[in-house]
Design a protein that fits this description.
This protein is of the alpha/beta class. Helix content is 27%, strand content 30%. Strands 1, 2, 3, 4, 5, 6 and 19 form a seven-stranded mixed β-sheet that branches. Strands 8-15-9-10-11 form a five-stranded parallel β-sheet. It has a three-stranded antiparallel β-sheet with strand order 12-13-14, with no helix packed on it. A hairpin with a 4-residue loop joins strand 13 and strand 14. The two termini are 40 Å apart.
Length: 326
Amino acid sequence: MKETFDVVVIGGGAAGLSGAVALARSRRTVLLLDAGDSRNTPAGHVHNFLTRDGASPAEIYTAGRAEVRGYGGRFESGLATAIRREGAGFVVDVDGRGTVQARRVLIATGARDELPEIPGLAERWGTDVLHCPYCHGWEVRDQRIGVLATGPMAVHQALLFRQLSGQVTLLRHSGPTPADEQLEQLEALGIVVVNGMVEEILVEQVAAGPTVLTGVRLAGGGRVQLDALVVAPRVSARAGLLAPLGLAPVEVRVGDHIIGSRIESDATGATAVPGVWVAGNVTDIQAQVIGSAAAGLLAGAAINADLIGQDAREAVAALRESRIEW
């Protein structure tokens, strides 16, 4: 690979695919690189994506790749290992397979969910260990839902899931002590508060089918029966590629508590480094799939406009040069 593209898009999730489609439809030469490890791979279905509700991430991304190719864009499975400035553009190293050149780059590498280290929890992530009431809440409505308190958002999460079920328990695992006003809200809404560290996620196999979550075991041996467990992970931007360009993640805080990190950008995804855009969870850790897709479209349109400006300036310079020569 020693080719030159108008734009190299790194990351093949909703943001990267949407940006690549917008650019390809504008007749830009686009290469989309995807390492194949999207954040929402463990999830069985995507929700709140208008007209695609219930589709799996794989279905959406497969259709997105087909759209990129249909408009003349190029999709490659591969890991971008480094980006560096070269002249007015960039050089991207691709997984030991060589380099490509780009006039602009769109980084849509997403984020990583950093989960509490509780035995059995990571294995259930995306099935019955959840984090978002809008992504998964309907699917666990009226069930026994536990909210694992590990940070400042636990009470807020408990209130959100109380809208979906009358059987919500706040597990005081760690994190700040709820304020008196919050405790009163929990009591008024019938949300049970259980004190004690959660030491293990309990599961059992249903007949010959898959295992399901049945509850948690607390320090000291107590058990709480549950059908779903809500966790607020720390969400960290996957932005190692950008460090050599001078872009480092900044902390995202709620009060004094760090809940994640992001790459700063303006409303279009433009970063402080000219020619570099970001979209999706790498810059907005709360974006759902449909929000990431919208951000990718916006970034793609902004990149195209930026390239149009450069193309026009270069055309004017060439015209003036030809007049001088004539």
